């Protein structure tokens, strides 16, 4: 990254937003984050390296209060670029899980990482249970005994222990 005039006069100045915006994220992060743990470590590692290489760590590590930076056009431009990078490097399921209007790059980074680090054991148990149910439903469908979505959902929620059970849907 080249030095711009402000970084020469101010050694603490951040990166140039135009240079950050022009980074080809798919070359620098050649992994797409999906709902499984198999891509998470590589995805996070590539992003962590990219943040360090381009002096962007403070946008995601919480050391800078991003609310205090709302009037800084360079900060907000880089923040928007980071959010776009996250959106374009994750599959639809995690995207819909973490997207909230008004989130900054730090909030997105925390949410995305939380999907893969919070309650890992419980999540794996639920994932395995869901995979088994889906496999059974597919096997039944293959022999002509289709399982409708309502029955599958009912079976799913009945099989979860009380910590994960969802309340039954209510009629409108």
Structure notes:
- 57% of the residues lie in helices and 0% in strands.
- It is an all-alpha fold and 172 residues long.
- The chain folds into 2 domains: 5-117, no CATH class; 120-159, no CATH class.
- The protein starts with a helix and ends in a 13-residue tail after the last helix.
- The model is unreliable at 1-11 and 168-172 (pLDDT under 50).
Rounded to the nearest angstrom, the distance between the terminal CA atoms is 57 Å
The biggest sheet, with number of strands, parallel, antiparallel or mixed sense and barrel status, is:
none
Helix and strand string, N-terminal first? HHHHHHHHH
| Total domain count | 2
What class would the helix/strand composition place it in? mainly alpha
Global outline: elongated
In terms of topology, how is this protein built?
Elements: H1 5-9, H2 17-21, H3 25-28, H4 40-53, H5 73-88, H6 92-98, H7 105-117, H8 120-142, H9 149-159
């Amino acid at each position: 990254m080249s030095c711009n005039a402000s970084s020469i006069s101010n050694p603490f100045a951040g990166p140039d937003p135009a240079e950050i915006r022009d980074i080809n994220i798919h070359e620098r992060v050649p992994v797409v984050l999906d709902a499984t743990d198999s891509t998470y470590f590589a995805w996070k590692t590539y992003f962590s390296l990219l943040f360090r290489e381009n002096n962007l760590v403070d946008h995601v590590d919480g050391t800078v209060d991003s609310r205090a930076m709302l009037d800084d056009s360079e900060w907000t431009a880089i923040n928007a670029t980071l959010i776009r990078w996250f959106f374009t490097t994750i599959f639809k399921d995690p995207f819909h899980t973490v997207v909230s209007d008004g989130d900054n790059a730090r909030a997105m980074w925390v949410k995305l990482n939380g999907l893969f680090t919070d309650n890992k054991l419980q999540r794996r148990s639920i994932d395995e249970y869901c995979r088994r149910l889906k496999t059974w439903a597919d096997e039944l469908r293959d022999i002509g005994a289709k399982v409708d979505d309502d029955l599958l959902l009912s079976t799913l929620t009945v099989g979860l222990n009380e910590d994960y059970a969802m309340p039954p849907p209510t009629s409108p």
